[in-house]
Amino acid sequence: MSFHGIVGWLHSVFVLQFDGWVVVGFAAQALFTMRFLVQWLASERAGRSVVPVTFWFFSVIGGALLLVYAVSRHDPVFIAGQAAGLLIYARNLWLIFNERRSALAKVE
């Protein structure tokens, strides 16, 4: 592919397709990516690998927005991937909150 072909492709992907949904998609991807930053910083602070609860909240919020974006784009692969991920993220939050509730019940 020539330089002009690459520039034309980049223009068609990043300029001609630009709309409100692309803004939503990029915002969703930024939120989804934040989970890795949060996990990395928490691990650095602890000096070991940890997965903070915030990781799962960013996963749910970013994943839900990415699912909305995928549905708006009619992308079956992206829809299936994000929908399956949301079930896993939500289940992890459920397990965390059940564990905390059990720990509080034992204290009382």
Automatic annotation (TrEMBL):
It comes from the Bacteria. Signal peptide: none annotated. Keywords: Membrane, Transmembrane, Transmembrane helix. InterPro entries: Lipid_A_biosynth_N, UCP028440_lipidA_biosyn. One of its GO terms (cellular component) is membrane. The chain crosses the membrane at residues 20-38, 50-71, 77-97. Gene3D superfamilies: 1.20.1280.290. One of its GO terms (biological process) is lipid A biosynthetic process. The keyword Repeat does not apply. Residues 24-95 form the Lipid A biosynthesis N-terminal domain. GO terms for molecular function: lipid-A-disaccharide synthase activity. This is Lipid A biosynthesis N-terminal domain-containing protein. It comes from Segnochrobactrum spirostomi.
